Amino acid sequence: MFKYSFQVARRSWSGNSNAADVINQAMRDEPRLEVTVPHESDVVLHGIFPTVTPVVTKVLAAVRTLDRFGISDRAGAAIVSAALQDVGIVSESNLLKVVDKNKILRGRAKARTTLLSQVIIDYDHDQLGLYFDGRKDMTLSMEDNRRKVIIEEHISLVKEPGSEYIGHVSVNFGRAQIIGNNIYSFFVMR
Description:
This protein has 6 helices and 5 strands, in the order H-H-E-E-H-H-H-E-E-E-H. The protein has helices at 2-13, 19-29, 60-69, 73-87, 101-122, 176-189; strands at 42-46, 49-53, 129-143, 146-160, 164-171. It starts with a helix and ends with a helix. The strands form 2 sheets. Strands 3-4-5 form a 3-stranded antiparallel β-sheet. A two-stranded antiparallel sheet has the order 1-2. 44% of the residues lie in helices and 25% in strands. It is of the alpha+beta class. Helix 1 runs antiparallel to helix 2. 7% of the residues are buried. Strand 3 (129-143) and strand 4 form a beta hairpin.
């Protein structure tokens, strides 16, 4: 059956058609063979292109434990797969529920976003964290028909949680007392 599909594709390829037309022609001429494996991953063969619906194995509890002890994705995948093999879920004849490092990586990302959203929901919004960071900027100005370089420090103000930008303050001198006074006056004027 597959030999016939490739012959159709070769025959169509000799004309001036693009690859999508070749594949569509092969799919139309090819009789469909559908194979479904019950209770496991679904494998359906449509012509020459098999489609696989993967089995979803939830690894959130394992991922939280791996994060807590600082175990890498590759080592964590080996540990989880070995545990599934010991329990009898994974065997040499049934390898569909083997956990690889990418599944651990996706599970870690999902667990972290879930945990972060839960922390933001439970967060006491009366508390405020103020963070600031500065950058020195060289600005050209004209004084007495001469160019002069003025060094200004720009301080960005950010409120946490949520990294909300509040504003910025420009300071001519970088002493801590002057920066603190300018930030204080920014909030008083606001």
